[in-house]
Amino acid sequence: VIPASPVAWAPSLDGAQVFFTGRDGGCSQEPFDAANLARHVGDRDEDVTENRAAVAARVGAPLVFVEQVHGTEVAVVDEDWDPGVVTTADAMVTTRRDVALAIMVADCMPVLLSDPSAGVVAAVHAGRRGLLDGVLGCTLAAMTDLGAHAADVQVVVGPSICPRCYEVPGQMCEDSGRVLPATMSTTRTGTPSLDLRAGAVQALVRSGVPARQITADPPCTLEDERFFSYRGAHRTGRFAGVVRRA
Ligand SMILES: [Zn+2]
């Protein structure tokens, strides 16, 4: 039996190997079937370990995870990084080629970045709160500290909930619009919603990344059954955006 691939979507990004995992290609039981990568959702720990190993094998390097808290902290994965310690952060940056950064999501945006000239890659967990609080700008600043230039950075926004599905209270839509006007949107039924992808593009452009270097039209996690969706089912797994410096 050839096991299903853990790769659900593989866009391209210069200077990096990138892909997004999905539901397929793992051993977890319902409702985490089958490739859940998160330990905090109630899945069997040994199943998560096996699922993570399959992804690490696919990317050809150990995976670095962080404990994500919807904040703006950026972990710098340097030579002294201890893979046994899980740091609290919502983004990771590195110049290392021998590790892969893995950011977990189920509706929030996994954002992967690469500066192919400087040899710096990053992975970000950007939900509504992190996006509005500036997690993408903080990540670009950390990349710059490692020698990257915003003008050379390429970005891919991964599978996440789309503006036609992401209904929010009107007040939340207005409050978000004051920080990032591009986030204000409407659902397919005309109610207030958030366009996190457009908000990400706006935040990245404000930080100096050319719009033409940003790809932000990924599959919708609520509509596309290849991916876990928290709005679809609160008790569910997490998939990951994975980036490794080429
Ligand atoms: Zn959608």
Question: What does this molecule look like?
Answer:
The chain has 5 helices and 13 strands. The model has no long low-confidence stretch (mean pLDDT 96). The strands form 3 sheets. It has a 6-stranded mixed sheet with strand order 4-5-8-7-9-12. The chain has 246 residues and is α+β, with helices and mostly antiparallel strands. The longest helix has 15 residues, at 45-59. It is globular, with a radius of gyration of 17 Å. Bound molecules: zinc ion. Zinc ion (ZN) is lined by residues 162, 164-165, 220, 222-223.
Order of helices and strands: EEHEEEEEEHHEHEEHEE
Q: Please state the structural category.
A: alpha+beta
Count the E strands.
13
Q: How would you describe the oligomerization state of the chains in this entry?
A: single chain
Helix content: 10-25%
- How much strand? 15-25%
- Termini separation comes to 30 Å
State the strand order across the main sheet: 4-5-8-7-9-12
Shape, principal axes of CA atoms: globular
What's the story with the biggest beta sheet?
6 strands, mixed
Name the hetero compounds present: zinc ion
Average pLDDT score = 96
The total of helices stands at: 5
